[in-house]
Write a structure and sequence with these properties.
Blueprint: H1 2-8, E1 12-14, E2 17-23, H2 29-42, E3 46-54, E4 57-64, H3 66-71, H4 76-84, E5 89-94, E6 97-102, H5 108-115
Parallel strand pairs: 2-3
Antiparallel strand pairs: 1-2, 3-4, 4-6, 5-6
Length: 121
Protein backbone atom coordinates (compact mmCIF):
# COMPACT_ATOMS: atom_id res chain seq x y z
CA UNK A 1 0.00 0.00 0.00
CA UNK A 2 1.43 3.32 -1.15
CA UNK A 3 0.18 5.32 1.82
CA UNK A 4 1.67 2.86 4.32
CA UNK A 5 5.03 3.12 2.58
CA UNK A 6 4.99 6.90 2.33
CA UNK A 7 4.07 7.18 6.03
CA UNK A 8 6.79 4.69 7.01
CA UNK A 9 9.31 6.92 5.20
CA UNK A 10 8.23 9.92 7.29
CA UNK A 11 9.42 8.40 10.56
CA UNK A 12 11.45 10.86 12.59
CA UNK A 13 13.63 9.81 15.47
CA UNK A 14 12.72 11.99 18.46
CA UNK A 15 14.22 11.18 21.86
CA UNK A 16 14.58 7.51 20.98
CA UNK A 17 11.03 7.21 19.64
CA UNK A 18 10.01 6.63 16.04
CA UNK A 19 7.51 9.39 15.48
CA UNK A 20 4.98 9.87 12.69
CA UNK A 21 2.56 12.79 13.06
CA UNK A 22 0.76 13.40 9.78
CA UNK A 23 -2.44 14.60 8.22
CA UNK A 24 -3.63 12.01 5.70
CA UNK A 25 -6.40 11.79 3.17
CA UNK A 26 -8.46 8.67 3.89
CA UNK A 27 -12.22 8.41 3.96
CA UNK A 28 -12.62 5.23 5.96
CA UNK A 29 -12.01 4.87 9.68
CA UNK A 30 -11.36 1.17 9.07
CA UNK A 31 -8.60 2.00 6.56
CA UNK A 32 -6.96 4.38 9.05
CA UNK A 33 -7.13 1.68 11.73
CA UNK A 34 -5.59 -0.90 9.38
CA UNK A 35 -2.72 1.41 8.45
CA UNK A 36 -2.14 2.31 12.11
CA UNK A 37 -1.90 -1.32 13.17
CA UNK A 38 0.28 -2.22 10.20
CA UNK A 39 2.75 0.56 11.07
CA UNK A 40 2.62 -0.29 14.78
CA UNK A 41 3.46 -3.90 13.98
CA UNK A 42 6.29 -3.07 11.60
CA UNK A 43 8.03 -0.11 13.31
CA UNK A 44 9.56 -0.48 16.77
CA UNK A 45 8.93 2.15 19.47
CA UNK A 46 6.36 3.91 17.31
CA UNK A 47 4.42 6.99 18.33
CA UNK A 48 1.87 7.55 15.56
CA UNK A 49 -0.71 10.32 15.28
CA UNK A 50 -2.85 10.58 12.15
CA UNK A 51 -5.38 13.28 11.40
CA UNK A 52 -8.07 12.97 8.74
CA UNK A 53 -11.12 14.88 7.59
CA UNK A 54 -13.96 12.82 6.18
CA UNK A 55 -17.24 14.37 5.00
CA UNK A 56 -16.27 17.58 6.79
CA UNK A 57 -15.64 15.84 10.12
CA UNK A 58 -12.13 15.70 11.59
CA UNK A 59 -10.75 12.66 13.38
CA UNK A 60 -7.54 11.85 15.21
CA UNK A 61 -6.00 8.41 15.58
CA UNK A 62 -3.13 7.61 17.93
CA UNK A 63 -1.23 4.32 17.92
CA UNK A 64 1.63 3.68 20.33
CA UNK A 65 3.94 0.66 20.49
CA UNK A 66 3.28 -1.58 23.48
CA UNK A 67 6.90 -1.04 24.57
CA UNK A 68 6.28 2.71 24.97
CA UNK A 69 3.02 2.14 26.80
CA UNK A 70 4.87 -0.08 29.28
CA UNK A 71 8.25 1.67 29.55
CA UNK A 72 7.24 5.30 29.12
CA UNK A 73 3.71 5.04 30.52
CA UNK A 74 2.27 6.65 27.38
CA UNK A 75 -1.51 6.51 27.08
CA UNK A 76 -3.15 7.06 23.69
CA UNK A 77 -6.61 7.21 25.27
CA UNK A 78 -5.65 10.11 27.54
CA UNK A 79 -3.75 11.91 24.77
CA UNK A 80 -6.56 11.61 22.23
CA UNK A 81 -9.04 13.13 24.68
CA UNK A 82 -6.71 16.11 25.19
CA UNK A 83 -6.16 16.57 21.43
CA UNK A 84 -9.90 16.19 20.70
CA UNK A 85 -10.51 19.53 22.44
CA UNK A 86 -8.86 21.21 19.41
CA UNK A 87 -11.43 19.69 17.01
CA UNK A 88 -14.37 20.28 19.38
CA UNK A 89 -14.88 16.61 19.95
CA UNK A 90 -14.16 13.64 22.14
CA UNK A 91 -12.92 10.11 22.04
CA UNK A 92 -10.91 7.53 23.83
CA UNK A 93 -9.59 4.03 23.63
CA UNK A 94 -6.81 1.94 25.02
CA UNK A 95 -3.28 3.03 25.98
CA UNK A 96 -1.87 1.66 22.71
CA UNK A 97 -4.69 2.71 20.33
CA UNK A 98 -7.29 5.46 20.55
CA UNK A 99 -9.44 7.61 18.29
CA UNK A 100 -11.41 10.83 18.53
CA UNK A 101 -13.88 12.59 16.29
CA UNK A 102 -14.95 16.18 16.28
CA UNK A 103 -16.86 18.92 14.50
CA UNK A 104 -14.14 21.53 13.78
CA UNK A 105 -11.81 20.51 10.93
CA UNK A 106 -9.92 23.79 11.30
CA UNK A 107 -8.58 22.57 14.64
CA UNK A 108 -6.93 19.48 13.15
CA UNK A 109 -3.60 21.12 12.35
CA UNK A 110 -3.49 22.61 15.86
CA UNK A 111 -4.16 19.15 17.33
CA UNK A 112 -1.33 17.60 15.29
CA UNK A 113 1.03 20.39 16.37
CA UNK A 114 0.03 19.80 20.00
CA UNK A 115 0.70 16.05 19.57
CA UNK A 116 4.39 16.88 19.08
CA UNK A 117 4.52 18.07 22.69
CA UNK A 118 4.09 14.48 23.85
CA UNK A 119 7.45 13.47 22.38
CA UNK A 120 9.46 16.68 22.74
CA UNK A 121 10.79 17.36 26.22
Amino acid sequence: NELKESLAKKVQLVNGLNVIIERIDLDSAEAVKNISFHLKDSIQDLFLVLGTVSKGKPSITIAISDSLVMDKKMDAGKMVRELAVEIKGGGGGQPFYATAGGSDPEGLDRALLKAKDYVNP
